[in-house]
Amino acid sequence: MESPEKFNNSKEVIAFLAETFPKCFSIEGEARPLKIGIFQDLAARLEEEERVSKTLLRSTLRHYTNSWRYLHSIKEGAHRVDLDGVEGDAIEKEHADHAQQQLEESKAKAAEKRKAKLAQQPKRKDKRQFNRPKGEKSANSDHADSKRGTKPKNNRPNSTPPAKLTDSDLQQGTQVTVKLGKAPMPAVITEVAKDGIHVQLDSGMVVKVNADALRLARSKRS
């Protein structure tokens, strides 16, 4: 018959103790103060238990009684319990004060560790800087430029709307822009007919459009 697999850590042992002695040990909720000398009681009751060694049992008991949850339970006047949950001696003020001191020191150490860990981490940059499209300035860049005495760049296109074509512009060779889709495209008038105006795009394609779809190219106006 194979031997049962041994426990590897205190967490496994505590879960085992809470299952075996539920009136004494617990893994959540309010803990119960343990009887003084309970290690000897545990060693005797678990003598045939091959999954836990006395060394691991001792370190587990130390881990359990040093936890914040357990230290909170050590209050003056509260009764200690044995493995079966039977209440025994009441906790004296000296023991309660000592447990409170341990609790405060443990919390202070934990806070110092968290503080040191945060200090070691690199400072996080504003994520919006990484998401900004290439070439786009930050919201405060114009303000910074004004402080340095330089005017912010204005990359906006000329707000003057393109001029409509006059009758004199409707002739072969006039440079225009034609709106095909969302963006106007440069073109040249190749023919003016009754049923429409034929223009040739930069791509070489010739299309027929109405005069209302054409605007005079800026180079022509200048």
TrEMBL record:
Question: Where are the stretches annotated Disordered?
Answer: 95-171
SUPFAM superfamilies reported in the protein's UniProt record = FinO-like (SSF48657)
Q: Which GO terms describe its molecular function?
A: RNA strand annealing activity; RNA strand-exchange activity
Q: Domain ProQ/FinO spans what residues? A: 5-119
Q: Which Pfam families match?
A: ProQ, ProQ_C
Q: Where is the composition biased (Basic and acidic residues)?
A: 95-113, 133-148
Matches recorded under InterPro entries: ProQ (IPR023529), ProQ/FinO (IPR016103), ProQ/FinO_sf (IPR036442), ProQ_C (IPR035236)
Q: Where does this protein have compositionally biased stretches of type Basic residues?
A: 114-131
| Keywords linked to the UniProt accession | Chaperone, Cytoplasm, RNA-binding
The record's Gene Ontology biological-process terms are: post-transcriptional regulation of gene expression
Q: Where in the cell is it found?
A: Cytoplasm
- Provide GO CC annotations from the record: cytosol
- Job of this protein: RNA chaperone with significant RNA binding, RNA strand exchange and RNA duplexing activities.
Its family remark reads:
Belongs to the ProQ family.
Q: Note the NCBIfam families from the entry.
A: PRK04950.1
Protein name in UniProt: RNA chaperone ProQ
